[in-house]
Amino acid sequence: MQCSPFTLQGQHVSLEPLTQQHLPAIQAAAADGELWKLFFTSVPHPDKAQDWLDMALELQQQTKAIPFAVREKASGQIVGSTRYCNIDHNNKRLEIGYTWYARRVQRSAVNTECKLLLLTQAFEHLDCIAVEFRTDWFNHRSQAAIERLGAKRDAVLRNHMILPDGRVRDTVVYSIIQNEWPGVKQNLQYMRDKYQTT
User: Fold this and answer.
1) Does any domain span residue 55?
2) Quick one: which of 119, 147, 190, 76 has its CA closest to 198?
3) Is residue 1 part of a domain?
């Protein structure tokens, strides 16, 4: 499974390897909606964005993650971030996570196309047999978005993580498996194309 950085190109977005040069743009994107105030997300506060970026790049060095900056093609601006994480080379599995977007592009084609690009790469080029999504029990919007993709809920991991603020998180786990991918892909393409006609 390839873990070196690469770029994915879509109609609305490009996913480019996250680098130190993205720091100001990441801070600006997170500031659109003050996303760090949502306690159940991993969006960095501007003052802590450097630590967040350093950790993402460290996990990439360890071949445990591939982080991306999300660039909106229409504006040319960085509007968020996402990554492959918890990469399990032996079992051909990975997770798509740490995803967030500036408020102005939420409920647009951006997330749909990002997931289409990432899932296509995972199933058709990285030879994955399953892709996971995990989210906080309290992040109901994220759960609904994951379900709209076509992922199925696998489990709730009780007391799964102790967060920096001391809260103990329950984690909801979803997945898409290899034989489901053709139908999920068709649905994502349909959802993406609907944005072009509205």
Assistant:
1) yes
2) 190
3) no
> What SS3 state is found at 121?
helix
Per DSSP, 54 falls in state H
Check if the beta carbon of residue 89 is closer than 8 Å to that of residue 125. no
Taking the C-alpha atoms of residue 132 and residue 93, their distance in angstroms, rounded to an integer, is 8
Number of domains comprising the chain: 1
- From the list 155, 88, 147, 146, the residue with the least C-alpha distance to 122 is 88
Evaluate whether residue 144 is within a structural domain: yes
Residue 181 belongs to domain with CATH number? 3.40.630.30
Q: Which amino acid is at 145?
A: A
What predicted TM-score, i.e. pTM, was given to this entire model? 0.92
* Tens-place pLDDT, residues 138-188: 989 889 989 999 999 999 999 999 988 888 999 999 999 999 999 999 999
